[in-house]
Design goal:
This protein is of the alpha+beta class. The protein contains eleven helices and six strands. A six-stranded antiparallel sheet has the order 5-1-2-3-4-6. It starts with a helix and ends with a helix. 22% of the residues are buried.
Amino acid sequence: MLGWVAASRRRRKARESLQARSMKNPMYQVASLLLEKLLLLANLRLCSEGPGAAEEEAKPASSYDATCFKRGDLLEVPRTLFVHFGIYLGDNRVAHLMPDILPAFTDDQRQIQQVVTNKRLILGVLARTARIRVDTVEDFAYGGSILANHMDEAFPSKALCEEEVARRAEKLVGATAYSLLWNNCEHFVTYCRYGSAVSFQTDKFCETVKMIIRDQRSVLASALLGLASIVCLGLAPSTTLPTIIIPFFLWMAG
């Protein structure tokens, strides 16, 4: 019991030290502050402590049996709005692509290797910066359930051999370009396992957008929203032009 308390104190001191060092970077501090204010206006609660005790308490306590995974397996973790993907490298390690703003402000690997917080992730998405990083199975899943090789049934190409999949993932570890639609974690794992970078989530999103555009009711909805903005904000170029242009383009595209 005493050993556990001492270890907990050491971890707390290490986190405080890392947080103190991150505060020395003014650019990261300003970007974080702006994001916090934006989310506050949208009534979203975002943890602003970094990888501290509050996040660790909110994180579900889960244990995973990594012995059931093989090197080169494609792992999926379903989230509320999306699915996160990674490649199992063996020895309880997973390579996965994560948006992260922190590497743009520091080269301190101890800070970068900490679990990516919501703040770091959202800023990384906005700045389109990411890293292919290696984390434990627990940090990768973050309390979610894990599916192994579930995509093999849906993907048209046959999976490469497990060792080739793992080697591809290991070669790509490090900084990488990021796009929410065109270069995300799903593109990374499908390239490694099947040799072709594909995202079914992106395809589904684009199909949904096309359905909305083709539905002529969207023309009426956009026109009504435009008229409402004119009534509420007054007749001005900033309200009149969108009211005319958006329904016109939707009508032509439909």
